[in-house]
Write a structure and sequence with these properties.
This protein is an alpha+beta fold. It has one domain: Cyclophilin-like (Cyclophilin, Beta Barrel), CATH 2.40.100. It is about 15% helix and about 30% strand. It contains two helices and eight strands, in the order E-E-H-E-E-E-E-E-H-E. The chain has an eight-stranded antiparallel beta sheet. Strand 3 and strand 4 form a beta hairpin.
């Protein structure tokens, strides 16, 4: 068992808590990166800057625009995990090896992302928070996916679980 197999992260948001478990066997670099960022407090105070009902919620950008990152990138670890409701996956630019800190949680089935984005975990609790975040009113213009009132990750807490 790797060290990340016995960890979960609780995303304590202004809309409720979401707890994620990880697929360390399928995406070890992404899992280690997410845990490292959570442990360092990187995600604390960041917002969900993109929410699309039936698709996903996206967060992890340090400046809240969808353009920022931690200053490094993680190479893709595509795997056989389907992008279905509750799956945690890494956002990236057009470059498949450009994931850094931005992540998304699927709100609905998004099979068109399979084998193109690295799925590395899933919600084990907090579907109510997911629904609350994705259904928040959004600003008009552009994609129309930025919440009017920021929904924050108040704390990303790494917890150890029993094997």
């Amino acid at each position: 068992m790797t060290e990340s197999n016995n960890k979960q992260v609780v995303l304590k948001t202004s809309a409720g808590d979401m707890t994620v478990e990880f697929f360390a066997d399928k995406a070890p670099k992404h899992v280690a990166n997410f845990i490292k960022l959570a442990e360092s407090g990187f995600y604390d105070g960041t917002i969900f800057h993109r929410t699309i009902p039936g698709f996903m919620i996206q967060g992890g950008c340090p400046d809240g625009t969808g353009m920022g990152g931690p200053g490094w990138q993680v190479d893709a670890e595509f795997n056989d995990t389907p992008h279905t409701r509750g799956i945690l996956s890494m956002a990236r630019s057009q470059d498949v090896n450009s994931a850094g800190s931005q992540f998304f949680v699927c709100h609905g089935d998004a099979g068109f992302l399979d084998n193109q984005y690295t799925a590395f975990g899933r919600l084990v609790s907090g579907e109510e928070a997911l629904d609350s975040i994705v259904n928040a009113p959004t600003q008009p213009g552009g994609e129309g996916s930025k919440p009017v009132s920021p929904i924050k990750i108040e704390k990303a807490e790494v917890i150890s679980i029993e094997a």
